[in-house]
Design brief:
Helix content: 40-55%
Shape: globular
Structural class: alpha/beta
CATH class of the largest domain: Alpha Beta
Number of helices: 14
Number of strands: 6
Number of domains: 2
Order of helices and strands: EHEHHHHHHEHHEHEHEHHH
Radius of gyration: 21 Å
Amino acid sequence: MQKHHVFLVHGITDLTNVPRDFKDLTARIRKHFRSLYKVDPDNYLEFVPVSWDNEVGEGERAIYERCFGQITPTDRTFVTTTFNPIDDADFMFEAIKQPRNQLEMFFSRFNRWRGWRYFSTLFMGHVIAYSNKNDNGIRRAMWSTLKKHLLENAPEVPSYSIVGHSMGAVISFDFLFELMTNLKLFQFGEGTETPDHLDKLQAKEIRNAFRNFYSMGSPISLFLMRRKELWSNGSQKRFGKVKNPFEGTQNKWMNFLSTDDVFGYPVQPLFGEEMDLGQKANPQDIYVENGLLPPWAHINYWRNESVAKEIARSIGQSIFPTGVASDRERELSGSRTSG
C-alpha cells in the first residue's frame, strides 16, 4: 500500500521559519495519529513540503535593493521576529533583563522606516505577484511538486491531502477548485500548453486520489474579491452564491481559524450549504485558540495541538474507512517497523 501524501504549503514568509513550522506540525500529527490508530504513522504518512515563493522572493529583494539599497539584518528584524514568535519572546525577555538599552532597541525597531518598508514589500509583493494569472512561478512551483510526488509511481496515484496556511491556503484552494470543477489544474498563461500539461485522464486520476483540504488562518474568502462574477448587482446581499468545489463529494474541507487572527476568515458562511440533520458542514469552520496577539494568532496553527489532532483524525478516517486500523493493518505496520 502506498503512503498517504500530506502536502504542506506555507504562507507569506521570508522562509526562515518554514522548516521549524513544518517540523512542529508533522511531529504533532504523527503523535496523534499513533495515539488514535495504534499504528506507526511513518508507515502510512509521507509529508511533502511545497516551496512556492523562490522566484517571487528574488524579485522582491531585487526591487527593494534597487530602490533602497542593500538589505541589512536590521531591515529584516521586524519580519524575523514577527514570523518567529520564539525569537520575539527571547527578544522581549532580554529587554526586561536589561531595560535601558534593550527596551530602546526594542521600541526603535517600530520607528525604522526601512524595516516597515521591507515588511510591506514582502507582503504586498507576494499578493501582487500571485494576483496575476500568468506564469509567475508560484502556480508552477506548487503543481510541479504535486506532480512529481503523485505521478512518480504511475499509474497508481497515492491518496493525498493538502495543508495550506494563509496565502498557501489560497494557492491550494485555487488548485483544488480547478481540479474539482474543470480538470484544468493550473494554466501557465492564457490558452497555452506547457510540458506540465496533463491529459484529462491523468487529471481525473489525481482528482480521484484527493482526500482532504485543511486551511489554516486563511484569507480565501477575501480573495474571492478577485472574481467579479461573484458580485450580484442590485442584490441586497451584494455577494452572490459561491460555487463549492466539494459539494456532493466525500472530500473534506476543514478551515481552522482563531478569532484573534486578523488574516483568518471563515468559509462556511460563503461556501456552506444547509446540511441534513446530523451531517457536518463541508467546508467546516473550526475555531481554535492560538494566542491573543495577532502575529502569534496567525502563525501558531503550526503548533496547535487541536489542529494537529483533527488533521490526524480525518486523515486516518480516509486511510481506515471504519475509523480504526484492523488487527492485520497493525500487524503489518509493526512488521514494517521491525524490518
